[in-house]
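In this supplementary section we document a worked example of the pipeline. Step one takes a protein sequence of length 359 as its only input; no multiple sequence alignment statistics are reported here. Step two produces a three-dimensional model, which step three serialises into structure tokens for compact storage. The input and output of this example are shown verbatim.
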Amino acid sequence: MSIDTVDKVIEQVGLHCETNDLKTFEFIFHGGEPMLISKEFYKYFVAQAKEKLPIQTKLFFAIQTNGILLSEEWCKVFSELKIEIGISIDGYEESHDKYRINHSGNGSFHSVMQGFKVASESAYLHKIPGVLSVINIQSDAEKFFYFLKEYKVQLIDFLLPDCSYEKLPLGYADGINDRTLYADWLIILFDLWFSDNTNGPQIIFFEQLVKIIIGIDEGFEYIGNRKAEFLTIETDGSIEVTGSFKVCGDGFTKKGYNIHTHTLEESLEDDLAQRYINGHDNLCSKCQACPIVEVCGGGFVAHRYSKHNGFDNPSVYCLDLMKLITHVQNKVLDYLPIEFVEESELTYLSFEELKYNNI
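The serialised model returned by step three reads:
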């Protein structure tokens, strides 16, 4: 990203914060691999943001990296700039190296874990980096959990593989049918995590799911009913919705908006941006009739896309979400005080009944 584009990003973000009287704003440096750019880029970006954005807007900065280039010098820079580090790790070696390979065609696990070790032990950082992992149902969920404990991962979040009805996820290539491969994998992991009495990892996806079920959280992009709050600005200044929508088709996110020629307000008014922001609204009739819609929220909006119906479909992961949510709710109910259960009107759920009634 050029300096001219950085300056324009800061200018437009400042205008957006002022227009909407925002109290907080977060910049996330993503990729590709965002550490391929110089340290001076980050120093300039953060300095300009702090100088130019409204004083009443508290700024947060984060970077999502594969971690291979992490060094003590980089850790010092990120610490000074208060940039939180997230590292993409898809589990233990065999799981990670299934899809994370370097330019030589070799797995990147050992290089990534070396970067994780550097950051975890850095004298400049005050906490172990968080981990982001794409679910691989070919991996062993139990082995994955103990990998997290072995490497003392303190915080991890999971992503379901990007998919739509035009590009079904691994395991569903010949149709969705009654399979729940992703729920089955997550349930194994959830039960291990939920019953673990040691200082195990904080798994954001599970924590938020439990909080939504008991009514103390609104959710996020995947589940619940909270509005989405992210836009992507590419290196050339193009403004797009999150890259997960690219799975819907070639050029799907290319709407012609650019930070050099449009305001963020203009790009946010685009139909696709509005569909993303309000992704848990305007659900299909099947979703609206489902008893767990307040928890599920229809799932992530891109996972509902088909050429035939647009976004007017249940999620590709509908049965997975249904099975996972019913399992988690039933498990949580076993541990809640009776008074709370009665007041909240939570009840035990049967996945088989929900599935039968929802078909």
